[in-house]
Amino acid sequence: MEEYYYEHPRAQVFEIVGPEASDFLHRLSTIHFKNFKDNDVKYGAFLTGKGTVLSLFTAWKNSHGYTLFFESGGETAIQYLNSMHFAEDLKILKSPHQLYEYRGTRSISGYIAFNWGIPGAFIQTGDVPSDAKKLNSYEWRMLKATYGIPELGTDITTDHILIEGPFEQWVDRNKGCYPGQEVIEKIYTYGRLPKKIFKVKTTHKTQIKTPIPLSFEDQNIGTLTSVYVGNTEAFGLATLKKTFTDKFTEFVLDGQVWTVEKT
Q1: Taking each helix axis from N to C terminus, what angle separates 74-84 and 21-28, rounded to the nearest 10 degrees?
Q2: What are the extents of the domains in the chain?
Q3: Using CA atoms, how far apart are residues 208 and 60, in angstroms rounded to an integer?
Q4: Residue 77: is its pLDDT beyond 80?
């Protein structure tokens, strides 16, 4: 397996420090911050009261508090945290460290990244394997899409409920209340999830401007939100209605057949 790394923008990494940092983050996120141990890594989200996504993040605890890496839109996420910060004894700071994300099978020191289907770790400059391929932002998004991982702001937005993406593991159902919890728990209880994000592909190497609405038998079935052209095919991510994916695995767009990958 090839190895890759990506240099994340500094605006996506923040430190939350202070004696009330864990209580503050615990009540706002899908993560159980109160049982964090030093060097633990957890994956979570900040949601609206409707269960839709404000931000996705990876958090780890260290000697001075918590580091939060945001998948994108770090400044927007911090604006949200600042708007919810009242009298709590804590500080929200930009991290002084440059953060790299490695993807590959090599065992390296660092904070474990969410396993897309290819393992990874967050590391500092000196620990980047010299023979790993550095990716630009487009190539990084394409690598994520290869494994069906949506890009925040493009494939998963504030119109999506968190678990419409592959993020069921990003919800600690035993932690207690947080914004959006009631919506998420109702879905788990009653199974009413009207749409999901899927990887889709076609054997034609085609360029399509996205987003583009999709239809099947004259009925809207969702939206194609991103497309990437590989060596032998085009692929991307689409938000598709459950009424379609329960029965079908293919749709036609501009005369080309696209297949829905279900896992």
Answers
A1: 110
A2: 4-142, 194-263
A3: 38
A4: yes
Question: Please, what sign has the CA dihedral across residues 194, 113, 90, 153?
Answer: negative
The pair phi, psi for residue 189, each rounded to 5°, is -75, -45
**What does the pLDDT read at residue 97?**
83
Q: Which phi-psi region, left, alpha or beta, contains residue 234 (left: φ > 0; alpha: ψ -120 to 50)? A: beta
**Structure-token match 């991982």, residue found:** 149
Highest CATH level, class, for 194-263 = mainly beta
Q: Which two tokens stand for residue 128?
A: 């980047």
Residue 1 pLDDT greater than 80, yes or no: no
What is the predicted pLDDT for the residue at 64?
A: 83
Asked: is 4-142 a CATH 3.30.70.1400 domain? The reply is yes
Overall pTM surpassing 0.90 (yes/no):
yes
Amino acid at 77: A
- Tell me the average pLDDT across 78-95: 94
DSSP string, 15-71: EEESTTHHHHHHHHBSS-GGG--TT-EEEEEEE-TTSBEEEEEEEEEETTEEEEEES
What tens digit of pLDDT does each residue of 89-131 get? Answer: 999 999 888 899 999 998 888 899 999 999 999 997 678 888 9
Q: What is the distance between the terminal CA atoms of the chain, rounded to a whole angstrom?
A: 21
